[in-house]
TrEMBL record:
The gene is hutH. Belongs to the PAL/histidase family. It holds the Pfam family Lyase_aromatic. Signal peptide: none annotated. It is found in: Cytoplasm. This is Histidine ammonia-lyase. It comes from Cellulomonas xylanilytica. One of its GO terms (cellular component) is cytoplasm. Transmembrane segments: none annotated. InterPro entries: Aromatic_Lyase, Fumarase/histidase_N, HutH, L-Aspartase-like, Phe/His_NH3-lyase_AS.
């Protein structure tokens, strides 16, 4: 288990989210957080004692906000809110997503702006620290008033209710029962934590995938006997996008020392201009990098936010607001899905060039051992094409849609949760498409023997071989090789091969 993440000493970072969500890190609240929480709670206790209506404290919710709730029913109010809003349906959401959203809700509780009691925040932290993960299902959030249904399932676990899995994945029983008081049920469910947690995980994954895409492009340029002249720093500098500069530098580093490149880097070589999928890789990968950096800026602002409605201000006011609206997060989730689809689309085009004897510069049709008898990697390209087609559908933005809810009180919603769910599927698709390109480029590289690849691209080829992906030869059962190639991309080893070669 990783070291414990202390919540309440500053904004939670993307690295904290990954540590808790994926690596099983524990959590605890800082002493400063407990002081802030107690200070905010004192405001709620004072308001609960007077006769004026206060939303979330002594009134109903949403379209029922005009109804006054007597003091003796306010605990029932909070319990009923959590039970009724735990209304998701469909397949279970991944454990890492639930842990991420719980950490981020705890982070907001730790600011003292929500009005929960210290013992409620501590009980929530204890669930997360113990590896207990409430079952949240795929459908239920509209991304406005926050991710209500997913967060309500997590709050329900505090009541000792609902389905909860332990660290082994088994259903847990005999959970501690915690009673909620004024404002607490609302504070536990009103935030963008689900979509933000998935954004944080996606940003972590994309850092690896975009480095991998640069390596894959370099392997394709190399094994297709393309030119690397277009990646020169001065040419790239004529269009000063920062992501483009990074990707071009990565491709140069990955090709450094390549015997294959050197073999045709002569005055006799007429390869001055390659197809776009080779020549324009830094421009497309770089644009994706710049989109990721914009999304990272939005995520970091959101990680520093305290999202609830109503909220306890620093000067002790309780104010309704619209900060729970998921538009800022939803937009960048959609932007990223567009970038992911385009990077994958370019990767698939490079894969296809290897298999076409008219465009592969001397390689056998479909890289087959005995063309006609063997089909080589023909159908691997079909698989990549099918994935890219799906990614294009997933790139259609979710955030442009809105279906009103709560008797038209919530008449414009973000659909940010849906944007996050499709981005997760898109990232898996990009992982697989890049794996297919690497597998294809590695086979082509072997067919260029005795010419030697660069240290970086050769290391990636050797990594695939060490994992059991065969080189050129008669047709074999291909599906396991595609899965292995995807795993090599996913676990970061391809990106790691590049890291040591960077200047």
């Amino acid at each position: 288990m990783s070291a414990t993440v202390v919540v309440g000493t500053g904004p939670v970072s993307i690295a904290d989210v990954v540590a808790v969500a994926r690596d099983g890190a524990g959590v605890r609240l800082s002493d400063e957080a407990l002081v802030a929480i107690a200070r905010g709670r004192a405001v709620v206790d004072e308001l609960a004692a007077d006769t004026a209506p206060h939303y979330g404290i002594s009134t109903g919710f949403g379209a029922l906000a005009t109804l006054s709730i007597p003091a003796e029913k306010r605990r029932d109010l909070q319990r009923s809110l959590v039970r009724s809003h735990a209304a998701s349906t469909g397949p279970e959401v991944e454990r890492e997503v639930v842990r991420a959203l719980m950490l981020l809700r705890l982070s907001t509780l730790a600011t003292g702006h929500t009005g929960v009691r210290p013992e409620t925040a501590t009980a929530y932290a204890a669930l997360l620290d113990a590896g207990l993960t409430p079952v949240v299902r795929e459908h239920g959030s509209l991304g406005c008033s926050g991710d209500l249904a997913p967060l309500a399932h997590c709050a329900l676990a505090l009541l000792g209710e609902g389905e909860v899995r332990d660290a082994t994945g088994a259903l847990a029983h005999d959970l501690p029962v915690h009673t909620l008081t004024e404002k607490e049920g609302l504070a536990l469910i009103n935030g963008t934590d689900g979509m933000l947690g998935m954004l944080a995980l996606a940003l972590h994954d994309l850092a690896t995938l975009l480095d991998t895409a640069d390596v894959a492009a370099a392997m394709s340029v190399e094994s297709l006997l393309g030119t690397d002249a277009v990646f020169a720093a001065d040419l790239q500098g004529l269009r000063p996008h920062p992501g483009q500069a990074v990707s071009a530098a990565n491709i140069r580093a990955a090709l450094q020392g390549s015997g294959i490149m050197a073999s045709h880097r002569t005055p006799e070589c007429t390869r001055v201009q390659d197809a776009y999928s080779l020549r324009c890789a830094p421009q497309v990968h770089g644009a994706a990098r710049d989109t990721v950096e914009h999304a990272r800026a939005v995520a970091e602002r959101e990680l520093a936010a305290a999202i609830d409605n109503p909220v306890i201000t620093d000067d002790g006011r309780v104010e309704s607001n619209g900060n729970f609206h998921g538009a800022p997060v939803g937009y960048v989730l959609d932007f990223l899905a567009i970038a992911v689809a385009d990077v994958a689309s370019m990767s698939e085009r490079r894969t296809d060039r290897f298999l076409d004897v008219a465009r592969s510069n001397g390689l056998p049709p479909f890289l087959a051992h005995d063309p006609g008898v063997d089909s080589g990697l023909m159908i691997a390209q079909y698989t990549a094409a099918g994935l890219v087609s799906e990614l294009k559908r997933l790139a259609v933005p979710a955030s442009v849609d809105s279906i009103p809810s709560s008797a038209m009180q919530e008449d414009h919603v973000s659909m940010g949760w849906h944007a996050a769910r499709k981005l997760r599927r898109a990232i898996d698709g990009l992982t697989r498409v890049l794996g297919i390109e690497l597998l294809t480029a590695a086979r082509a590289m072997d067919l260029r023997a005795p010419l030697e690849p660069s240290p970086v691209t050769g290391a990636v080829r050797d990594l695939l071989r060490a994992r059991g992906v065969p080189g050129p030869g008669p047709d074999t059962y291909l599906s396991p090789d595609l899965e292995t190639a995807a795993d090599v991309v996913r676990d970061g080893h391809v990106a790691a091969a590049l890291r040591g070669a960077r200047p």
